[in-house]
Amino acid sequence: MKSDSLLTFIIFSNMRMNLMFQLENPMSLTEIKECFDVTSPNVVPRIKELEKRNLIYKDYNKYKLTSMGNIMSKKLQTMVRLSSIIEEYGFFFNEHDIRPIPADLLIRIDELRNCKLNINSKEDITAAYMEVLDNISKSSSVMGISSIFDSYYPEFFLSIAQRGDPISIILTDYVYRKVVENYDESLQKYLKYDNARMYVIEDVKLAFVVTNTFLSISFYYKNGSYDISTNLINFEKPAIKWGEELFQYYKQKSKEIIK
After folding, report:
1. 82-107: per-residue pLDDT in tens?
2. Torsion, CA 118, CA 119, CA 123, CA 125, rounded to 10
3. Among 73, 107, 132, which residue terminates a domain?
4. Containing domain of residue 17, as a range?
5. Burial environment of residue 24 by CB neighbours within 10 A (0 to 12, 13 to 18, 19 or more)
6. Do 230 and 105 belong together in one domain?
7. Which of 150, 151, 246, 142 lies closest to 193, judged by CA?
8. Helices then strands (H, E): number in the chain?
9. 144 domain residue, yes or no
10. In a domain, 1, yes or no
11. Could you say which of 17, 223, 230, 250 has the lowest number of CB atoms within 10 Å?
12. Predicted TM-score of the model (pTM)
């Protein structure tokens, strides 16, 4: 990449980059100075540089992004978000198997920015697990994939169905067989509710739940073992939407269990 490229020109100046971000909403020079708490000599040269590069323009007394400036701003914001999540959780994604995330969602991993890493402690080996269950209990809609068997799940998810909230669960073949063998009565009760759906998928090395309030996702290690002690949790709308799309991706690959 040439040192004088447009990308280099923008990212090597926090003022230029932040100006582009702020000008997604047109601003006057006075508003710009107030926003950045700077004087004209500090900001006017940067404005002129962006104008010269056809990224912003002046319309009457307001500075605005050009069409290409608007595209560049959105792409830069994606890079900033991606940089943030890599700096914070790059180690986590690198040590886990993230191949189950489809390519179109993987390149949007920046939408999980501002997530929190839940880790069990020596003092409380179920802390991360219990926080997820607590948040599910407070939600009014639930979708998720379970690739591991837990004897607590059948009655827990049945209770959600019984209170009338929409719930859709995808189980792997192995987990579904375990449920049928040991909790068929709870399964049949669950399937009788119109608001409850159950799907089966051959196999997936992933476990997650997305509700109207949060997303929680757990991965397998690269050696194939499930990480029982850690999950990522996020309460922001972009992450919830991302999680809903991930569920729909696997739902299309699953077979619905009909009562």
Report:
1. 998 999 899 999 999 999 999 999 99
2. 100
3. 73
4. 6-73
5. middle
6. yes
7. 142
8. 10, 11
9. yes
10. no
11. 223
12. 0.85
